[in-house]
Amino acid sequence: xxxxxxxxxxxxxxxxxxxxxxxxxxxxxxxxxxxxxxxxxxxxxxxxxxxxxxxxxxxxxxxxxxxxxxxxxxxxxxxxxxxxxxxxxxxxxxxxxxxxxxxxxxxxxxxxxxxxxxxxxxxxxxxxxxxxxxxxxxxxxxxxxxxxxxxxxxxxxxxxxxxxxxxxxxxxxxxxxxxxxxxxxxxxxxxxxxxxxxxxxxxxxxxxxxxxxxxxxxxxxxxxxxxxxxxxxxxxxxxxxxxxxxxxxxxxxxxxxxxxxxxxxxxxxxxxxxxxxxxxxxxxxxxxxxxxxxxxxxxxxxxxxxxxxxxxxxxxxxxxxxxxxxxxxxxxxxxxxxxxxxxxxxxxxxxxxxxxxxxxxxxxxxxxxxxxxxxxxxxxxxxxxxxxxxxxxxxxxxxxxxxxxxxxxxxxxxxxxxxxxxxxxxxxxxxxxxxxxxxxxxxxxxxxxxxxxxxxxxxxxxxxxxxxxxxxxxxxxxxxxxxxxxxxxxxxxxxxxxxxxxxxxxxxxxxxxxxxxxxxxxxxxxxxxxxxxxxxxxxxxxxxxxxxxxxxxxxxxxxxxxxxxxxxxxxxxxxxxxxxxxxxxxx
Length: 587
Fold this sequence. Notes:
This protein has an 8-stranded mixed β-sheet. The chain is 44% helix and 7% strand. The protein is built from 29 helices and 12 strands. It starts with 35 loop residues before the first strand and ends with a helix. By secondary structure, the chain is α/β, with parallel strands linked by helices. Among the domains are: 36-258, no CATH class; 498-585, Serine Threonine Protein Phosphatase 5, Tetratricopeptide repeat.
């Protein structure tokens, strides 16, 4: 499967209800096989290659899930055809990370895009990890292999098949969700396995959706990149990761897993409809067609008002915090309703507020939301024809001037913005696009003569942005290759200015006091930025793909302003897998 699957153990035989179901939870998804977990304390004592379900069961190390347990679900991509971790590297990273949470030497950070100047976010229940239990497919599911049969295989009705079918229910039952995504190599294919490849797997996306769309109070997802780096996932990462577009080892799984995602989404919408908040309800309702790969738009005005719960046209037109009528129409992809609302007085240049937890920062314009939400270019065209200004900017907390061009996510967006006279010179759009957009979108910007060497007023530019923000982007290597082919300078050193430089200085104080190893992820990355090259940034981010590519293009081992070399930065962030690569290329 290439990702997490199910769980198992407890007594020698499983008590299954007469209808073939076993209640491992009281959630949305069917649980057809008991959920088995391992104590964190027992896992920390293990070494080397992980042992399978049958062995752990004989040793008495498996426990059947109980409601009183604090359980951590571990999602991961398999590193071998017959074993999830043939060399034990993944499990070593997980053990070190769990121990670091227990002893307080590591905490989960928010990604750099959301953390700037803001450190007051809810923390993870570290105090519960020591007494917690782990769900890991290899431990929990009997006779598990990287499957060659689909989840619908009716021929066997085996415990393994029933456990695999129960994965969404297992996710719902867990109190914490961890994606184990260190940058490692698959032992049989020789391909890199990392965050972007994990995020591309259809089953991994299903697990992610089941977690984030569950009705639990805490639905956050923790990404473990190394034993010194753990971050909460960005909302946009899952919103752009449609199950329908995921990769499946068994093609017949696609339809089945899409139905699981649909069930999770609709359950979430029903829950929000009943309990609120209204903003979240309208957002998920508007997203539903796109997330489920269904046709968007087509509302009558009255149907639109009724669907999104607006008492009147006046309520849909007025601007307020949360999901306004205009935002509902844009996210639902209905250009006709957009035009109707504008005709009745809606502000086409309004700025959003109250959507930060959904991935949309305060002060973004409606046009920016349409671009970032990957709407059809026709929606952007409709907004601009309705007098939306493509050159309105918002100033990020790091001092970047963000425009709709920065957030373009399709080549068609670039074409529309060009046709509508967007100014690509005022705020270089490549800086925003290269980290999170597609290679075809970046190509369109380059064809529009955007220069990869042009930096923003705060000193941040495309060559740094692709390394900082491209870790979850499967197109990042292709994007970097295009930048380099367009005369991007692999050895240009970052010179942050203004607010960004002040934040770097603040982080360097922490680094001076505690060392880079003792800093938070955010502090480490910010302290490393002044004087850093693209290679240094890729090293501190642990991105093997970009490190190799930069070295192949003669990137030099240049120290940053603190005197840290790329090797120093990789070591400080726990990305020791990069050290042999950096030393091999270093002459």
